TrEMBL record:
CDD domains: TPP_E1_OGDC_like (cd02016). It catalyses: N(6)-[(R)-lipoyl]-L-lysyl-[protein] + 2-oxoglutarate + H(+) = N(6)-[(R)-S(8)-succinyldihydrolipoyl]-L-lysyl-[protein] + CO2. Belongs to the alpha-ketoglutarate dehydrogenase family. It comes from Wenzhouxiangella sediminis. SUPFAM superfamilies: Thiamin diphosphate-binding fold (THDP-binding) (SSF52518). This is 2-oxoglutarate dehydrogenase E1 component.
Length: 936
């Protein structure tokens, strides 16, 4: 023990007796160091050490028991201190568990657990202590207060219309910040008179639209907001409050409930347009545009705020409820990068969840896990839960989750959670401002759980009372929140009924006229955002020059392979760097890693951005890329590609967390907001993309057809049969091919480094932004036959189809074998070994959009061939065969036979036994090179 502490004990009441009261203080200190007076904090911190809490606890206890044996203290002082410790524990109990006694349910029927911790007796206190003054610890307010005032402050703060969960946060500064804001208010959430009138106006708008639609479009689905109308003033306040702090763009994601209300009353969508959707009057002018239901549609607008204009963007979303959330986050990240918003204060992502969805959809856990990661941080997302207390349709919450609250998942990132009674709209606005300010201060996710109810069923044709009779008996008797609040303001003399009625009539008049009910900014005042106009009429056949002067390649390579003094790469990486110097000089053939890197370097130098994300993308899963270099001397890293841009933010190559669904959704969202950046998501193995199938189906393949959303996202999916079993062979090419229609995506299978180079450059240089799905190689990365030269990069272009480079005599060719990917090299090797000269091998490098003209021209060239075969490694029911057979059929001549060569159909992508794999591969190669032979 230090001399300082010894002296402190000798000269204070700490020097003695019963250690129980110290034990109580210490327990309070463990829960919250700032809950005890400063001298106690200092004492406990100096007596503690780096071992575990329980060991420290025993040490403290033993120390004070030893002091007690010295008999240096009075029983009276001990009793007072014991009471004081009980008061601090009581304060801490309210902070930890007060939310369980809060008045959160507007219906008043939810069963709450018993909370003995909040009773005086639990902490050895009683009513006789209420008028005694105690130290209030870190409770906001005076240092000493009567116990009565301390309890009242705690009850008003933690047991009113807001239930607070924040004591799971380990950062003391964050907890202290929340304590000051919440305890300082003491449950008084009443804003200024003008804001109260605006609040009533927004509640009236929310209710007014629902009643209008209910009477005009009887029985049509709209997923009404009735019962949760407070969400409209919540979002209105969030926009105005954050706008006054400098937020210039807000990206919103939400599912069905209340979406139409948000579109009209927040974003200012024309009621006339909404009504036309109800009446089915919207006809697509593009045959490839299928459209979507009205409650999936997005919208964007510009609105005024006290701090200037703000651009609002409500993301389009499918019925896979929470899958839009990572898309919103990715879009926000792209906008922050474009604005050079390093502090992440100008773009705010907002996600509106359902109570069942936030608890039930795993993508939320993935997204929260991403929230503080380097490559995905957005400065915190503002989460709003429209908590119907009923789940998705008519379920019981006990069947929907295993937790008291639906928001438990947010605790994994120590997000503060405020549960708010939706029928106390003033509390809702207070909580909104507190959380918005916390997010701005600490750059973390925040959660506002809007506890409300659903006046109607899941959709307007549903009858919820069939399964929830007690709840809906209560709902039928309950006045809507607008009426409750209007009555309050009328009673206080802030408004009168005549004024309210007049405002409501004016709102209905605007709806009748189809006029926007929100003040919108004109184009000259709007926030400048990305211009997609240059890409609207893009053509996949647009010819662009993708070749790059060999001198430029050498110069860029020299800069990439020249490392700073003192930077020591791993010896294997150094060998790769040395070999790339030889490739640039023409001394050795060019491999895939070099060609890919040069594609990035030339694009970045030309003004494009790069974002490459995957689970092992920095070095490359197959140790081939090494875009990120690591210094063996000190552990530091560098991204050499960043030297080609004046804005390093626009060049990102990063290893993602172990997630497919959320990360792919994030990258899709990024690409939809940033057409000038080459955005790539890479699977560690191609079949891992299975975990992101919802993103592929609902956004990547169909986003343009449903919503007119363009996106140039690139997906790298390592694909090829190497005998590694069913889980590391197939990127499920057939699934992508099945989704192809109307030039919606591109599917390529490059087989040469130069093809990779030109394909990536073409993706950015064309005025054409469609997702690009690439079946990338594995073993070909170092295959001696799969190399290119500097001349290929300088004078070549991406070849949709590659004719047989062996140049067989067309007069001798009896069979033309078309294939894609690695199998070509197995065929070519066997053909050379066997000396076969009557078979031509042709590679289709772009499977969709299918290059019919080029294929037809090659077939015509071999005019003596009686057969055309399609050879693939994948089983017959997988791969490309069934999806391109009709194209090949259209290309062959009359009388030519068309057939399949490859593995037989299978429910599994590949066999698990290497020897069986070799036997299958040998058979399919032999059949492919034998005219007259097809796989039955």
């Amino acid at each position: 023990m230090t001399d300082f502490l010894q002296e402190q004990y000798r000269n204070s009441h700490l020097s003695g007796g019963n250690a129980d009261y110290v034990e109580a203080f210490y327990e309070a200190w463990l829960d919250d160091p700032e809950s005890v007076p400063e001298n106690w904090q200092k004492l406990f911190s100096q007596l503690s050490d780096s071992v575990d809490t329980e060991t420290r606890h025993r040490r403290i206890e033993a120390h004070f028991q030893a002091l007690a044996a010295n008999g240096h203290y009075s029983a009276g002082t001990a009793a007072e201190d014991f009471k004081q410790a009980g008061v601090l524990r009581l304060i801490n109990a309210y902070r930890v568990r007060g939310h369980q006694r809060a008045k959160l349910d507007p219906l008043g029927i939810s069963e709450r657990p018993q909370v003995p911790d909040l009773e005086l007796g639990f902490h050895s206190l009683d009513e006789s202590d209420l008028d005694t003054k105690f130290h209030s610890g870190s409770l906001a307010g005076p240092d000493h207060l009567p116990l009565r005032d301390i309890v009242e402050t705690c009850r008003e703060t933690y047991c009113g219309s807001i239930g607070v969960e924040y004591m799971h946060i380990t950062d003391t500064n964050q907890r202290r910040w929340l304590q000051q804001r919440l305890e300082g208010a003491r449950g008084n959430y009443t804003p200024e008179a003008e804001e109260r009138r605006r609040l009533l106006d927004k509640l009236s708008s929310a209710e007014g639209l629902e009643k209008y639609l209910h009477s005009k479009y009887v029985g049509q689905k709209r997923f009404s907001l009735e019962g949760g109308e407070s969400m409209i003033p919540l979002l209105d306040t969030l926009i105005r409050h954050t706008g006054s702090q400098g937020v210039r763009e807000m990206v919103i994601g939400m599912a069905h409930r209340g979406r139409l209300n948000v579109l009209v009353n927040i974003l200012g969508k024309s009621p006339r347009d909404l009504f036309a959707e109800f009446e089915g009057k919207i006809a697509a002018d593009d045959p490839n545009r299928s459209g979507d239901v009205k409650y999936h549609m997005g919208f964007s607008s510009d609105v005024p705020t006290p701090g200037g204009p703000m651009h609002l963007a409500l993301a389009f979303n499918p019925s896979h409820l929470e899958i839009v959330n990572p898309v919103v986050a990715g879009s926000a990240r792209a906008r922050q990068t474009r604005l050079r918003d390093d502090r992440r204060e100008q773009v705010l992502p907002v996600l509106v969840h359902g109570d069942a969805a936030i608890a039930g959809q795993g993508v939320n856990m993935e997204l929260l896990n991403m929230s503080q990661a380097r490559g995905f941080a957005v400065g915190g997302t503002f989460h709003v839960v429209v908590n119907n207390q009923i789940g998705f349709t008519t379920s019981n919450p006990l069947d929907a989750r295993s937790t008291l609250y639906c928001t438990e998942v947010a605790k994994m990132v120590q997000a503060p959670i405020l549960h708010v009674n939706g029928d106390d709209p003033e509390a809702v606005l207070f909580a909104t401002r507190v959380l918005a300010d916390f997010r701005r201060e600490f750059k973390k996710d925040v959660v506002l759980d809007l506890v409300c109810y659903r006046r109607l069923g899941h959709n307007e044709a549903d009858e919820p009372a069939a399964t929830q009779p007690r709840m809906y008996e209560t709902i039928r008797k309950l006045d809507p929140v607008r009426k409750q609040y209007a009555d309050t303001l009328i009673k206080e003399g802030l408004v009168d009924k005549k004024t309210i009625d007049k405002a409501n009539e004016g709102y209905r008049d605007k709806l009748d006229a189809g006029e926007p009910v929100v003040d919108l900014l004109g184009e000259d005042e709007a926030v400048e955002t990305v211009d997609w106009d240059p890409y609207l009429d893009g053509d996949w056949r647009e010819e662009v020059t993708t070749g790059v002067d060999a001198g430029s390649i050498r110069e860029l390579s020299e800069r990439l392979t020249t490392l700073p003094e003192g930077f020591e790469p791993h010896k294997q990486v150094q060998r790769i760097i040395d070999s790339r110097r030889k490739m640039a000089s023409g001394e050795s053939p060019m491999d895939w890693g070099f060609a890919e890197t040069m594609a990035y370097a030339t694009l970045i130098e030309g003004g494009h951005g790069l974002r490459l994300v995957g689970q092992d993308s920095g070095r490359g899963t197959f140790f081939h890329r090494h875009a990120v270099l690591h210094n063996q001397a000190d552990g530091s890293s560098m991204l050499p590609l960043q030297q080609f841009t004046d804005d390093p933010r626009r060049v990102t190559v990063i290893d993602s967390l172990l997630s497919e669904e959320a990360v792919l959704g994030f990258e899709y969202g990024y690409a939809t907001a940033e057409p000038s950046t080459l955005t790539i998501w890479e699977a560690q193995f191609g079949d891992f993309v299975n975990g992101a199938q919802v993103v592929i189906d609902q956004f990547i393949a169909s986003g343009e057809a449903k919503w007119g959303r363009l996106c140039g996202l690139v997906m790298f999916l390592p694909h090829g049969y190497e005998g590694q079993g069913p889980e590391h062979s197939s990127a499920r090419l057939e699934r992508f091919m099945q989704l192809c229609s109307g030039a919606n995506i591109q599917v390529c299978v490059p087989t040469l480094p130069s093809q990779m180079f030109h394909m990536l450059r073409r993706q950015m240089l064309r005025r054409f932004r469609k997702p690009l799905i690439v079946m990338t190689p594995k073993s070909l990365l170092r295959h001696k036959a799969s190399t290119s030269s500097l001349d290929d990069l300088e004078n070549g272009q991406f070849q949709l189809v590659i004719d047989d480079p062996a140049g067989p005599d067309p007069k001798k060719v009896e069979r033309v074998v078309f294939c894609a990917g690695k199998v070509y090299f197995d065929l070519a090797k066997q053909l050379e070994e066997d000396g076969v000269d009557n078979v031509a091998l042709v590679r289709v490098e772009q499977l969709y959009p299918f290059p019919r003209e080029e294929v037809q021209a090659i077939i015509a060239r071999y005019d003596k061939a009686d057969e055309v075969a399609w050879c693939q490694e994948e089983p017959m029911n997988q791969g490309a065969w069934f999806q391109i057979r009709h194209h090949l059929q259209a290309c062959i001549r009359d009388g030519q036979a068309l057939g399949y060569v490859g593995r037989h159909g299978s429910s599994s992508p590949a066999v698990g036994y290497y020897q069986v794999h070799l036997e299958q591969q040998k058979r399919l190669v032999g059949e492919a090179l034998t005219p007259g032979k097809f796989t039955e």
